[in-house]
């Protein structure tokens, strides 16, 4: 669940945010689940604890997690079944994909054809 390779194109804290969101969206983490402590997660991901703290703070600002003083960070109950989170992440991936295809000079129709060919 926390095995992850960072890329050099995006800040690490944003990649950590996306990792947590992905684990929620695919059901590895559910409402009320406790996240690893900042130190534990920093050790698992081999990053600076300050980077982890920033990611956890952003997740809390977005309402994805909440903190119980002295107990740690937990997945928010308010996010519900996380369908909206999954859809939001899928939409972001689709937008990036379509922009990349457009940058390559591939039309919408060509993109659809490529996808249809991949589906077999």
TrEMBL record:
It comes from Clostridium tarantellae. Pfam families: GntR (PF00392). This is GntR family transcriptional regulator. Residues 10-78 form the HTH gntR-type domain. Keywords: DNA-binding, Transcription, Transcription regulation. It comes from the Bacteria. The keyword Hydrolase does not apply. GO terms for molecular function: DNA binding; DNA-binding transcription factor activity.
């Amino acid at each position: 669940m926390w095995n992850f390779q960072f890329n050099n194109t995006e800040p690490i804290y944003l990649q950590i945010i996306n990792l947590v969101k992905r684990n929620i969206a695919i059901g590895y983490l559910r409402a009320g689940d406790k996240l690893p402590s900042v130190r534990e997660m920093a050790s698992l991901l081999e990053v600076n604890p300050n980077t982890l703290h920033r990611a956890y703070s952003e997740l809390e600002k977005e309402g994805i997690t909440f903190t119980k003083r002295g107990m740690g960070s937990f997945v928010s109950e308010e996010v519900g079944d996380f369908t909206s989170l999954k859809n939001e992440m899928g939409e972001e991936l689709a937008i990036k994909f379509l922009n990349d295809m457009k940058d390559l000079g591939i039309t919408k129709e060509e993109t659809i054809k490529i996808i249809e060919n991949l589906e077999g």
